[in-house]
Amino acid sequence: MHFWKRVGFLIAVGIGLGALQGEPRNAKWEQEISAIEQREAETPPPANGIVFTGSSSIRLWKTLAEDFPHHPVVNRGFGGSQISDLIGYFDRVVVPTHPRQVVVYSGTNDISGGESAEQVLADWATLCGMIEVALPGTKIALIAAAPNPARWSQRAEQSRFNALAAAYCARNGYDFIDVWTPMLGADGTPSRDIYVDDKLHMNAAGYVMWRAIVAPYLID
C-alpha cells in the first residue's frame, strides 16, 4: 500500500476503533468472553506474548502452550466466531496483553454464513488496521482458511479468500500461513485422518500438522 494512503487508512481505522469501543458487543459471545476475562484475572497471561485468536479451531487448540513451550502463547479463540466478532471484541480479546504478535484463524465461518471472499477480506483489512493503531509494532499473521470435508462445497470461495488474503498480507508486511495445501491428500481433497467425527474440526493429528506449519512464523 502506498505510504500516504496507508497513513490515511490507519487514521480512518483509528477513528473507527474509538467508535467500536463505545458500541455494544455481539451478545452471542458475551458469556464466553466474560469467562475468558474472569479466568485470566485469576491467572494473568504473559504480557508481550503471542496471542492466538479467532474461531473454534483456535479455541479447541488445547495443546497450544505445550506445542510452543519456548513461546509465551495465549489462546483467545472463541466461538464459532467470525472476523466481525473479533473486531467487536478486539479491545477485550486482543489488546489487554499488549502482544508482540497476533496470530489469527478466522474467515471460514464468515464464508459459511454467506459472506463473499471480498467481504471477509475487507473485515480482515479492518482488523489489521485496528491492530496497527492500537498495538504499534505488533507482528500480524493470518492462518489460511483450512479445507475440511464438512464444508468442501465452499472450497471455491475459501480458495478465493486465501488468494486475496495472501496477496493482501504480502503487500502489507503480514505473514500468511498456508495450511490449505498441506491438509489436502494425494487426491486433492481434505485428508480424512486429521478430523474428528463432525468432519469440520481437527483431531490431535491435525494440530500436530498445524504445530509444524505455524512454528517457523512465531517470533522470539
From the coordinates shown, what is the CATH architecture? 3-Layer(aba) Sandwich
- Give me the side-by-side strand order of the main sheet: 2-1-3-4-5
Number of strands: 5
Largest sheet: 5 strands, parallel
Secondary structure class reads alpha/beta
**Oligomeric composition of the shown chains:** single chain
CATH superfamily: SGNH hydrolase
Name of the level-1 CATH class: Alpha Beta
Overall tally of structural domains: 1
Number of helices: 10
First-residue to last-residue Cα separation = 27 Å
Order of helices and strands: HHEHHEHHEHHEHEH
The gross shape turns out to be globular
The mean pLDDT is 91
Descriptive overview:
With 220 residues, this protein is of the alpha/beta class. It has one domain: Rossmann fold (3-Layer(aba) Sandwich), CATH 3.40.50.1110. It is 46% helix and 10% strand. The chain is built from ten helices and five strands, in the order H-H-E-H-H-E-H-H-E-H-H-E-H-E-H. The chain has a five-stranded parallel sheet. Helix 9 links the parallel strand 4 and strand 5. Helix 8 runs parallel beside helix 9. The chain starts with a helix and ends in a 6-residue tail after the last helix. The relative contact order is 0.13.
